[in-house]
Amino acid sequence: MPLDQRFKGVGAALITPFDEQNEIDYPGLKRLIDLVTEGGTDYLVVQGTTGESPTVTSKEKRDILAFTIKNNSKKLPIVYGIGSNNTQEVLNTIKDTDFTGVDAILSVCPYYNKPTQEGIIAHFTAIADASPVPVLLYNVPGRTVINMKADTIVKLAAHRNIIGIKDAGGSLEQSMELAARAPEDFLLLSGDDNLVTTMVSVGWHGVISVIANAFPKEFRALTWAALEGRFKDAAKLQLAFLEFDTLLYIESNPVGIKKCLEIKGICSSDVRLPLLKASKELGEKLEKAMVREGFM
């Protein structure tokens, strides 16, 4: 099977805008979809962690997905986040989901209950067997505590319905091992914006990006410069984002990127508890960085 080109390049891990009443801000979401679409984003990722999925209800998730599909003016591929540390809950959600307009799901490694690597394989095998669309694995040990090891990922890559992985493990050694061992048709997608150029240089295929919410044009230029082998150009852009990327996570994700979107007039920086809006100090640092790097 050839590499699924729909998910090569930049996927924007969409935030969920909220209004002052803590309800979904759909006009803000429309402006966000338009921004990332006009900025050249290759595909949309709905209700990943950056979309505050832990505090968005099941009904809200379905409504956000439907709204995104309806307002997807360029008919970009859509990846929908369906994950849990409860395998049966994921299977039930898959059964209850209308996949019309959905091209793949992104499913996070089980968190909190700390399964073995064999348990991870069984979990994702059950999901892939049940899903009517392809599955992208999501490895983010900073949030889940456990790391999907390269051996585990390679074994899961043999499943006909598991087509790739978003990896935010931060290990260049594991990234290189996967580039060497994964099947040629298995998508390798960075979950770390600040490592895109490096990971592409060893054979990775793109990124599911937080930064692309607010700066899609610039981050697409970075990613595709690397994918096209123009590493000097890619490195220049990557380094411009270096300090900025660090600032985004000081008060947790998506607090920082929501503040950037507020500065750009797309939506408010409101988040749901237990997260808090960006502090005044962080907002000032982000705005200064945006001005300095020409991201306004």
UniProtKB/TrEMBL annotation:
List of residues binding pyruvate: T50, I208
Classification via PANTHER family: 4-HYDROXY-2-OXOGLUTARATE ALDOLASE, MITOCHONDRIAL, DIHYDRODIPICOLINATE SYNTHASE
GO biological process: diaminopimelate biosynthetic process; lysine biosynthetic process via diaminopimelate
Record protein name field: 4-hydroxy-tetrahydrodipicolinate synthase
Originating species: Dyadobacter soli
Reactions accelerated catalytically: L-aspartate 4-semialdehyde + pyruvate = (2S,4S)-4-hydroxy-2,3,4,5-tetrahydrodipicolinate + H2O + H(+)
Role played: Catalyzes the condensation of (S)-aspartate-beta-semialdehyde [(S)-ASA] and pyruvate to 4-hydroxy-tetrahydrodipicolinate (HTPA).
EC number(s) per entry: 4.3.3.7
